[in-house]
Amino acid sequence: MTTFDDREKGFEKKFAHDAELKFKAESRRNKMLAEWAGAKMGMAADQIAEYVKEVRRADLEEAGDDDVFRKVRADLDAKSVAVSDQELRDQMHEFLAKATIPLVGQVWRDSQRIHRIGFVKPA
User: Fold this and answer.
1) How far is CA 112 from the centre of its chain?
2) For 23-42, b where at least 16 C-beta lie within 10 A, e where not — what string?
3) Domains and CATH numbers, the chain
């Protein structure tokens, strides 16, 4: 196998790993957003758990965050909960940042473990 083939496989693995992390972060963001919106709408705990599933399903409708935004926006409007579009988008961004922190920490811990057991030489 050539160096080029090795690099190509490395990039493919990184791309797949990055896509998995993005999916996990967005899924966690959607959970936090659904819990926040559910509380604003006065839902009980069991209703919020079901609402989390609905929001996560909505995220699979199309690429990007607009499907989640529209779902939560429509639900808040249906319950006459006063939340501006800007506040909703701000919450989405804040929750995504919070959801990403544990994942970044996990990546760092994994890389340190790999360095310790000798698969990769530290830089």
Assistant:
1) 24
2) eebbebbbbbbbbbbbebbe
3) 31-113 (1.10.790)
pTM of the complete model: 0.74
Phi and psi angles of residue 119, each rounded to the nearest 5 degrees, phi first: -75, -35
Report the distance separating Cα 81 and Cα 116, nearest Å.
52
Q: Quickly tell me which residue has 């659904």 as its tokens.
A: 34
Model confidence pLDDT, tens digit, residues 3-47:
767 777 777 777 776 778 888 889 999 999 999 999 999 999 999
The CA-CA-CA angle for residues 76, 103, 60, to 5°, reads 45
Separation of alpha carbons 72 and 40, rounded Å: 11
Q: What share of the chain is helix, strand, coil (3-state, %, to 5)?
A: 80, 0, 20
